[in-house]
Design goal:
Blueprint (H helix, E strand, L loop, with lengths): L1 H18 L6 E5 L2 E5 L18 E3 L7 E2 L12 E3 L7 E2 L12 E3 L7 E2 L12 E3 L7 E2 L13 E3 L10 H5 L6 E3 L21 E3 L32 E3 L5 E2 L5 H4 L10 E3 L22 E5 L13 E4 L2 H14 L6 H6 L1 H11 L8 H9 L1
Helix pairs in contact: 4-6
The chain binds 2-acetamido-2-deoxy-beta-D-glucopyranose (NAG) (3 copies).
One 2-acetamido-2-deoxy-beta-D-glucopyranose binds next to loops.
Length: 369
């Protein structure tokens, strides 16, 4: 009898173990994977008695304020973690370091203001990182280091971001979706998207962008995108609600064949408020460069120097030189080459010329056209 009782007790404790479930939560052991569901239960912190074998953990809609290193320790089988709609304003560095199988992390609608370098450490299999509707103003350059190659979906929309670690984005070779809409971004680093061949959706709506950097990826956003293959899908690109500066620098964008997406020009004054796609190509102009000073002779022999000073922003110069190179030998005076390395690179890429011309007169005539 004592023996039976003893084994009954043992059995009882074994059952208790497998069904241990934090107060207020529902635990499901479906097809041998444990789900711990605690949505909207008024929780103030992550329960400490969650079964460490849990595969799915839902903690959305509570009042959790912070995440600590203890909260998810040993949860090495967790695949899906939802922390949406809490009041999280602080995540201790290395809090997710054991979550090596985590694929999806939902942190949307919280109060995060910053992502430090070690907050996302250890998430080496993360595919979906959802951070929209926080108050993020800063993201460390190293924040995404452990997930660069696995991330497919990054949502940073509805934050207060002025900048993004573009170098990191550039390395996210498996990215399918990038949502950066409704932030304060005024600059996108050139070359950011060059290697993102799988990118299918890029949302830049409602930021402070005056222009987009020219990038081959945007060719995939055209209506008749002939380039699209399963490996390089059509790109859904949105950039409405930005104060576009409609000059020669974004003529390339106007030349894309796209559906009218209600984008408008914010400047120059003459084009303010006009629909981007209705502005004629000829109206996307840049001021001619203003030559403020030059040496007496602009035509010199090889080895001799000639110099000039001009007032023009480098981007405009770049566009102007590109246009010029369509018509004439792609040769640039040394001085200009040195001052506009990007122009040089662009021209080299176009037709292989590496030599710079010593004939400034011709180039200036062209540029002033
Ligand atoms: C889930 O149930 C299976 C048997 O169906 C059992 O082997 C496993 O230990 C249970 N997992 C958890 C976390 O309780
Ligand atoms: C995590 O696992 C280690 C090693 O198995 C153990 O010593 C530790 O107590 C565990 N911590 C928690 C919070 O479960
Ligand atoms: C310099 O460029 C101008 C304008 O294109 C051209 O007329 C002139 O012949 C050039 N001079 C030399 C030496 O190449």
């Amino acid at each position: 009898m004592a023996k039976v009782l003893c084994s009954l007790l043992l059995l009882g404790s074994a059952v208790m173990m497998t069904t241990a479930c934090p107060k207020y939560c529902v635990c499901q052991n479906l097809s041998e994977s444990l789900g711990t569901l605690c949505p909207s239960k008024g929780l103030l912190f992550v329960p400490s008695d969650i079964d460490r074998r849990t595969v799915e953990l839902r903690l959305g809609g509570n009042y959790i304020i912070k995440i600590t290193q203890q909260d998810f320790t040993n949860m090495t089988g967790l695949v899906d973690l939802t922390l949406s709609r809490n009041t999280i304003s602080f995540i201790q560095p290395f809090s997710f370091v054991d979550l090596e199988t985590l694929r999806s992390l939902h942190l949307d609608s919280n109060r995060l203001t910053e992502l430090g370098p070690d907050v996302l450490r250890g998430l080496v299999n993360l595919q979906h990182l959802i951070l929209n509707n926080n108050q993020l103003t800063r993201i460390s350059k190293e924040a995404f280091d452990d997930l660069l190659l696995t991330l497919e979906d990054l949502d940073l929309s509805y934050n207060n971001l002025r900048g993004i670690p573009w170098e990191a984005i550039r390395k996210m070779l498996n990215l399918h979706q990038l949502s950066l809409d409704h932030n304060l971004i005024s600059h996108i680093a050139e070359g950011t998207f060059i290697d993102l061949e799988k990118l299918a959706r890029l949302d830049l709506t409602s930021n402070r962008l005056q222009k987009l950097p020219p990038d081959p990826i945007f060719a995939r956003s055209q209506i008749s995108s002939v380039l699209s293959t399963p490996f390089a899908p059509v790109l859904s690109l949105s950039f409405g609600g930005n104060p576009l500066h409609c000059n020669c620098e974004i003529l390339w964008l106007r030349r894309l064949e796209r559906e009218d997406d209600m984008e408008t020009c914010a400047s120059p004054p003459s084009l303010k408020g006009r629909y981007f796609w209705y502005v004629r190509e000829e109206e996307f102009v840049c001021e001619p460069p203003l030559i403020t000073q030059h040496t007496h002779k602009l035509l010199v022999l090889e080895g001799q120097t000639a110099s000039l000073r001009y007032r023009l922003n480098p981007e405009e110069l770049w566009q102007r030189l590109q246009d010029a190179s369509r018509n004439l030998p792609a040769k640039l005076p040394e001085k200009l080459c040195a001052r506009a390395p990007r122009a040089k690179a662009a021209l080299n890429a176009k037709d292989g010329h590496t030599k710079c011309s010593n004939n400034l007169t011709g180039l200036l005539q062209l540029m002033a056209k």
